[in-house]
Specification:
By secondary structure, the chain is mainly beta. It contains no helices and ten strands. It is globular and about 40 Å long.
């Protein structure tokens, strides 16, 4: 059942983050930092919430990923809420899992420019899943990965 697509991530995790210092600017410098997260189901299993603690180089912060599954359309929506800006929730990325990988997309704005955003969930059947975020300034013709998260069970 697709509503169980995120079951691989339930529980507590240690997270290794890599984040590009500047997005869509030709930057090749990355910050690396640790974090933790805990995911649990909500909405009777048709959704989940992922509570994150990120240890950025310039200080810690908390954030949540909120996910819900639409059985009629067979798709997931994922929202991000950054605790440093608690009244602004990001535009949701919408997508699904196929062949063990999840692909989710949205139209967004980065520094005043329209962009396409992509989340990928990879290795969901390995016990060490990986999440990637990328932006495209050319409608999805090319992508710049700007954040990765590698998960290890806590």
């Amino acid at each position: 059942m697709p509503a169980s697509d995120f079951d691989f991530q339930q529980g507590r995790w240690q997270v290794k983050h890599r984040r590009l210092r500047a997005r869509l600017a030709g930057c090749t410098d990355w910050d690396e930092f640790d974090g933790t997260c805990e995911q649990r189901p909500i909405l009777g299993g048709a959704g989940n919430i992922e509570d994150n603690l990120l240890h950025l180089p310039d200080g810690d912060y908390r954030a949540v990923a909120l996910r819900s599954f639409d059985p009629a359309g067979g798709a997931w929506a994922i929202w991000w809420l950054d605790g440093r800006n608690p009244h602004a929730i990001d535009v949701p990325v919408i997508g699904r899992f196929e062949g063990g990988a999840g692909s989710f997309h949205a139209d967004d704005v980065h520094e005043g420019r329209p962009v396409r955003m992509r989340f990928l969930w990879l290795g969901t059947d390995t016990g060490a899943p990986r999440w990637e975020q990328a932006l495209s300034a050319d409608g999805g013709e090319s992508w710049e990965t700007n954040w990765t998260m590698d998960f290890t069970r806590a």
